[in-house]
Inverse folding.
């Protein structure tokens, strides 16, 4: 793990040393300007907090699908993630959560770490389903307790304007669960009330929420005016670059998510997103009617897209690693420093992934792969 290393104190030209426990013991090096040499970039591993699947598999498929998803995203630099659910009736959702709970207990070899679950549905507004199945529900304490017992749920998306949901926000926040506002027809005032009740984020900002209008500022304005954190899908399809730039100026720790589906890392074709059939073509994933349905985005491409719209590499890197880790309250991921997990992504000068380490294990070595390909020609 040698090269231009992005540390909390800035760029260092040197080497990372990891211990047998998978944590960083020390970083040897000297302050450097990464553009002053041809060495690779060494960044903190990417942290994805909204991810429905990849490698042809969906998290709603249950426990058996998880290793393939975690390995698929590790190829693109994601070293830890939340497995995200889709809206479904309890008889479908509860067994899926139980499977994800079991799967999250250990990290498969060669794979990203599953940090827990993002419960994206079913507590959403039926008028803002987006690509979510038509099975929304009002949250009740009893049902929510079942779900929380089934899996380590770290994030819950809900529509705050639905009856009783402000009390649910207070309950979840008191338990340390991050509550995000999304799939909502709520007003600006609903958003502010939810933040005051303990909500702390916004799910795929701009998408599936009331837009900003000057006399009806909507949920988007609540985020832009008050949020410290919010997630956004920077595939340049879900959100225009101009809107991304506006959010970057307004929200200090705006961070990327992929909202990836089973189609991520796969060729064009037919896949599924929960109970929905989706179609990947020309970089997008859509329902049959053309509605965007998650994405085929990977976190390395999210990083490159941030750079393409004008962010410097260090800022872009924070938005795919440090800020999502901070949002979950993690102090040992999303940064390269002594004591942190050795979650590391090595990029070449074109910002393509060359190797990936998860908790000190080399899970991906594209340079080695390319050497093997060359040797067999």
């Amino acid at each position: 793990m040698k090269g231009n290393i992005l540390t909390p104190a800035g760029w260092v030209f040197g080497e990372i040393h990891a211990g047998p426990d998978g944590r960083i013991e020390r970083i040897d090096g000297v302050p450097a300007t990464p553009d002053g040499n041809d060495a690779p970039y060494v960044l903190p591993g990417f942290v994805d907090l909204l991810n429905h699947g990849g490698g042809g598999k969906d998290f709603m498929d249950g426990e058996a699908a998880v290793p393939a998803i975690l390995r698929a995203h590790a190829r693109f630099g994601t070293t830890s993630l939340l497995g995200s659910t889709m809206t479904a009736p309890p008889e479908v959702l509860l067994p899926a959560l139980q499977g994800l709970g079991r799967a999250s207990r250990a990290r498969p070899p060669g794979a990203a770490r599953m940090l827990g679950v993002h419960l994206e549905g079913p507590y959403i507004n039926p008028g803002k389903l987006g690509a979510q199945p038509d099975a929304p529900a009002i949250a009740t304490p009893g049902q929510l307790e079942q779900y929380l017992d089934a899996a380590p749920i770290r994030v819950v998306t809900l529509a705050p304007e639905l009856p009783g949901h402000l009390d649910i926000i207070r309950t979840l926040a008191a338990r340390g669960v991050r509550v995000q506002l999304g799939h909502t027809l709520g007003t600006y005032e609903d958003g502010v009330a939810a933040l005051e009740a303990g909500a702390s984020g916004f799910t795929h900002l701009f998408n599936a929420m009331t837009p900003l209008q000057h006399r009806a500022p909507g949920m988007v304005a609540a985020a832009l005016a008050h949020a410290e954190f919010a997630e956004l899908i920077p595939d340049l399809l879900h959100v225009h670059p101009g809107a991304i730039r506006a959010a970057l100026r307004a929200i200090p720790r705006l961070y990327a998510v992929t909202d990836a589906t089973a189609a991520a890392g796969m060729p064009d074709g037919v896949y599924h997103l929960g109970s929905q059939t989706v179609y990947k073509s020309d970089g997008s994933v859509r329902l049959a009617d053309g509605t965007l349905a998650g994405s085929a985005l990977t976190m390395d491409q999210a990083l490159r897209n941030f750079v393409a719209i004008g962010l410097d590499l260090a800022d872009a890197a924070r938005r795919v690693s440090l800020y999502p880790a901070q949002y979950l309250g993690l102090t040992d991921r999303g940064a390269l420093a002594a004591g942190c997990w050795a979650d590391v992504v090595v990029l070449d000068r074109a910002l393509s992934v060359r190797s990936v380490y998860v908790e000190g294990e080399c899970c991906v070595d594209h340079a080695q792969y390319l050497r093997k390909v060359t040797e067999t020609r």
Q: What stands out?
A: Residues 45-331 form a domain with the TIM Barrel fold (CATH 3.20.20.140). Residues 369-377 have pLDDT under 50 and may be disordered. The two ends are 28 Å apart (CA to CA).
